[in-house]
Amino acid sequence: MVAGLKNAERFNAAGRTAAEQRNIATVRIVFEGLARADFSVLYSNLAADGSIWIIGFTPQRLPKNAGNPNFFSDLFPNGIDFDIKQVAVDGNLIVVEWEDMCITKDGRKYENTGCSLFTFNDEGKIRSYHEYIDPEKFYAIL
Q1: Domains of the chain and any CATH numbers
Q2: What backbone torsions phi and psi does residue 17 show, to the nearest 5 degrees?
Q3: C-alpha dihedral (10, 14, 15, 19), degrees to nearest 10
Q4: CB 111 within 8 Å of CB 100
Q5: Is the Cα dihedral 52, 72, 45, 15 positive or negative?
Q6: What is the reported pTM?
Q7: Which H or E run includes 118?
Q8: How far from each other are the two terminal CA atoms of the chain, in whole angstroms?
Q9: Which of 104, 112, 109 is nearest to 131 (CA)?
Q10: What is the mean pLDDT of each run of 10 residues along the chain (142 residues)?
């Protein structure tokens, strides 16, 4: 399976300010990276004081190896197919609604729906990333 990004044209920056265009481009780069199993792309665009929050992900429920920088790329080695449903932009805030599907390292199908909320600092780095998904669907494949 080759992962991809469906409806990427929804990352349209026409008529936006220069900062919004830059931020939209960064969000698209992040989703393209996740689609090809390059999960480091999120971290490489994160501000030094930035944060990542995924709803329902707690240290008590995640496996001990979740802190491994390769955790997600090991779990989803073929990347993730994203179907971008909506993209909303308001200054330094971008919200992306999506559906995803992928095959895990052991051949199981994973599907979820979610919303990603990016906030950017004035330098164009991601100040915070919040992902809202059904965590039970994620835990079911661990």
Answers
A1: 5-139 (3.10.450.50)
A2: -65, 165
A3: 90
A4: yes
A5: negative
A6: 0.92
A7: strand 109-120
A8: 20
A9: 112
A10: 80 95 97 93 96 89 80 92 97 97 96 98 97 95 91
